[in-house]
Specification:
The chain is mainly α and 331 residues long. It has one domain. Helices cover 64% and strands 2% of the residues. Strands 1-2 form a two-stranded antiparallel ribbon. A hairpin with a 3-residue loop joins β1 and β2.
Length: 331
């Protein structure tokens, strides 16, 4: 195999088949001796051609601060937050069950025992008096159970512990926080009323209720518990903290003894003025509604009137309570 030749006085590329190329310098004419040998050797020696190196761009480091932002939380509806807060309060009620029972059950049990068992056994009252009084005690438990569950804790939350501030930070409208308080009071009042039923039936084994009156009686019991929660909200937001004990001492006995708990409203026809006073008390309509459903043979107010008056009282007291709650929350 012969080496490639380059004509004198020209510039060309030496080619070695299959190996690569190299650009050679111009051959000098008349070169002799060592110089000619060097140029010929340069022309006949193939060289490897290396690929052009790739240029990789280098990004300059950013001087902007890196700010980490958490992923957006999933949307949470007001109803879910409302139920979460309510379930938390119900859980707390379960942990304080002994105190709850002592607060709501001791007094009605003694009322029923003294008035129905002791006085009835002594012949001072009629033998059927317990059947008249038990529906009134169920209404009493529902009403005062809801009232106590809202009024006193609300006064403490606003004036002492300031726990209400945590509730106001919840992602729900402020009026719903007030409604949650009423709902909790209604649940506690309803529980107190339901617990009174087996106790009363054990103490008064002769009492029998018609099956058709159980659902209407339950409806009035629920309304009574809601009524107590609404009144507790109104009292807890309108009454100054330093006067709450005095107020309860002034209103507890009048509410209890003018609510037709111990007697039917129609039995007061001989004391007309006192009958009108009892008609102002919303507890009267709860007691009469439960009595109309469970003891229909006893003279009572119309059941429909009792339901309507109870609903109107709940709406009015809830409106007053929510307005008072908004005012205290803004302060």
């Amino acid at each position: 195999m012969s080496a490639p030749t380059v004509p004198h006085g020209t510039s060309d590329t030496a080619v070695w088949p299959g190996r690569g190329t190299r650009l050679v310098d111009r051959f000098t004419p008349g070169a002799v001796g060592v110089e000619a040998s060097r140029q010929v050797a340069a022309l006949t020696t193939p060289t490897w051609s290396s690929p052009r190196p790739r240029t990789v761009p280098v990004l300059a480091p950013s001087t902007a601060p890196v700010v980490w932002s958490p992923p957006p939380a999933p949307p949470c509806s007001s109803a879910r937050v409302f139920l979460a807060v309510l379930s938390r309060d119900v859980h707390v009620t379960g942990k304080e069950l002994v105190a709850f029972l002592a607060q709501n059950m001791v007094q009605p049990i003694f009322f029923l025992f003294i008035f129905a068992k002791v006085l009835g056994g002594a012949g001072i009252v009629g033998g059927g008096y317990g059947e008249i009084m038990l529906p009134g005690l169920i209404a009493l438990n529902a009403f005062f159970g809801g009232l106590h569950a809202v009024a006193f804790p609300l006064v403490l939350d606003f004036a002492v512990t300031r726990e209400i501030e945590d509730r106001l930070l919840a992602p729900i409208p402020i009026p719903l926080v007030a409604v949650e308080k009423m709902a909790l009071g209604a649940l506690r009042g309803l529980l107190a009323a339901v617990l009174m039923v087996p106790i009363g039936l054990v103490m008064l084994p002769t009492v029998s209720w018609p099956a058709g009156g159980l659902i209407p009686a339950m409806l009035c019991t629920v309304l009574g518990a809601m009524l107590g929660g609404a009144m507790g909200l109104a009292i807890g937001t309108l009454v100054p903290p330093q006067r709450i004990n005095v107020l309860f001492a002034l209103i507890f006995a009048p509410l209890m003894f003018t609510g037709s708990v111990q007697f039917p409203w129609h039995a007061l026809s001989g004391e007309r003025w006192f009958q009108m006073v009892c008609a102002v008390n919303p507890l009267t309509y709860v007691s009469e509604g439960i009595r109309a459903a469970l003891v229909p043979s006893v003279p009572h107010l119309p059941y429909g009137l009792c339901v309507v008056m109870s609903v109107l009282a709940i709406v009015a007291l809830a409106w007053v309570g929510v307005r008072g709650f908004m005012r205290r929350a803004m302060d």
